[in-house]
Specification:
This protein is of the alpha/beta class and 332 residues long. It has two domains: 175 residues, Rossmann fold, CATH 3.40.50.720; 147 residues, N-(1-d-carboxylethyl)-l-norvaline Dehydrogenase, domain 2 (Orthogonal Bundle). The protein is 50% helix and 11% strand. An eight-stranded mixed beta sheet has the order 3-2-1-4-5-6-7-8, with helices on both faces. The longest helix has 23 residues.
Length: 332
Amino acid sequence: MTRSAVIGAGAWGTALADILARNGHETMLWALEADVVAAVNDTNENKRFLAGFPLAPTLRATSSFAHALDGATLVCIATPSQHTRSVLASASASFTPRATLCVASKGIERDSLALMSDVVTEEAPEHSVVALSGPSFAAEVAAQQPTAIVAASNDLVAAETVQDAFSNSHLRIYTHDDIIGVELGGALKNVIAVAAGIVEGVGLGFNSRAALITRGLAEMTRLGVALGAQAATFAGLAGVGDLVLTCTGSLSRNRAVGMAVGKGATLDEALAGKETVAEGVATTRSAFALAAREGVEMPIVEMVHRILFDGHSAQRAVSELMSRELRAERDA
């Protein structure tokens, strides 16, 4: 079996580490927080980020990169996207030569507008990189509910390595060669989920949400194609699959933030007291800038940006979106 490491002990990183350990791999979980390390090692539970789910008794945690990465031939990165580069800058010296790097973080770096796989490649250029994405709430994965996600890479062998390491009777991994599309799907759906929460927060119903999700998918696809992704990728697990889950699921942090804002909370109020990260907030800034750079029309992303960062009225935003110039669906 593989010696594995997961960097980042939030809910998703912990769930992934638990899978690897249960699949028989010797697995170390790196955590920044000392209380998380102690809880995993002493009680086999991440009480801070994934409370209530017993972890594999063989899973060990540490705050030392050298300890976590020693001999690991598969490394999964599951840190918040805006911290991924700084964490890798500290960790990369401890990577085993030729280790496969699997990035499970979903986002677009704010300043560089780089996808997470590009960040990993820049910080660890000698390694094959795989993006792991798709519809997957960490709590349901930890509860061993059937889930299907995607491992995408330009290196098929690396993608198959990740597929083999994580797949089991309740988690099914499909390989994919469109790493740009898979990563953009995982990042952009969080912005549309914030929008879906706003729609729900202002009191609108299922018709409005369905329209929002469908038009959001069109925006995601437009930007993806402009950046070299395959349009068909957005019709798959990492596109519409993840989008529908995050826009409708009660466990979605991004949807919850949008709902609070739609009900009248400021962004600071909506985020106050949250232990976990709603990636859609930071990704809204990045997606807005990326669309402007590429000259791609993304009215929903633009409106979410105005609501979150410019104080624009959520109720007015819905009316403004509905009053845009009429056009054919395939041209919109």
